Amino acid sequence: MSPGRRRADTPLPVPDGGGHDHDHDHDHDHDHSHQHHHGHSHGLVDDSIKRSREGVRAVLEALGVLAVAAGAQTIIFVVSGSVALLADLIHNYGDALTAVPLGVAFALRSQRAERAAGLFVVAAIFISACVAGVESIERLLHPSPPTHLGLLAAAGVAGYTGNLVAAKVRKRAGHRLDSPALVADGNHAAADAYVSLAVIASAVVVAVGIPIADPIIGLGITLIILRITWQSWGTIRGHPHHHHH
Q1: What residues have CB less than 8 Å from 35, skipping those under 6 apart?
Q2: Which backbone phi and psi does 171 adopt, to 5 degrees?
Q3: Is the whole-model pTM more than 0.70?
Q4: CA torsion, points 80, 84, 90, 92, in degrees to nearest 10?
Q5: Is 31 in contact with 57 (CB distance < 8 Å)?
Q6: Over the stretch 164-188, which tens digit does the pLDDT of each residue have?
Q7: Helix/strand/coil (H, E, C) string of 132-186?
Q8: Residue closest to 103 by CA, chosen among 65, 53, 69
Q9: Is residue 216 packed enough to be buried (19+ CB in 10 Å), middle (13-18) or exposed (0-12)?
Q10: At a CB cut-off of 8 Å and minimum separation 6, what does 148 contact?
């Protein structure tokens, strides 16, 4: 175990051994090479400003698409009062938010800023999951079935479509910019698109005459949001070695 660890640490000190004062002069360079060293795992360290700008644009486009979908869902939630929809729109806002640390990383090309943004996002998603959970339980205790079921189903379609489009934007840009993080974000959004379909299920089941389905589906989506929180936390925690100089 120990030799393995020693080997993992050597790539950084070795070049120093040779020309130490030379390295001192170029402290900045040294830092960059350190970042490049880990670049492959993160896929967001590149000195070209153009790449940074394109990355930010892709992140903002995906954010915009999801924000429009979540905005439409918010309006329908106010009209319909469906807790399943509340949970899904929180989930979509959360999905949009996960792009923020990536945007920060592209804009500032700084891993520290990216981690700080990431922690903020995880906290925000966690709090919103709690809101969805509390509302769902409240609705289980005091049933109040959602209305405007046709609109409710449309909100599910909006969430589904928004997720798919945002996923496509992120994945395409991720491949073009060779950013594994962006591709991963896109895959995650695509995988989570089906969560919005649960809203359609809720509308259908309530229409059939089982109003309790709404808060139960709301709780189910809450669990999915918690899982996303956990995954995002893991993603951020996954890079502590980036900062050991």
Answers
A1: 45, 111, 242
A2: -65, -45
A3: yes
A4: -100
A5: no
A6: 999 999 999 999 999 898 898 899 8
A7: HHHHHHHHHHCCCCCCCHHHHHHHHHHHHHHHHHHHHHHHHHHHHCCCHHHHHHH
A8: 53
A9: middle
A10: 76, 79, 80
Question: From CA 202, how far away is CA 139, in angstroms rounded?
Answer: 14
- Assigned token pair, 13: 């000190």
Tokens of 50: 């153009």
User: 25 is written with which tokens?
Assistant: 């002069």
Quick one: tokens of 39? Answer: 């670049």
**DSSP-derived secondary structure letter, 82:** -
pLDDT per position as a tens digit, 116-144: 999 999 999 999 999 999 999 999 999 99
CB 60 within 8 A of CB 169: no
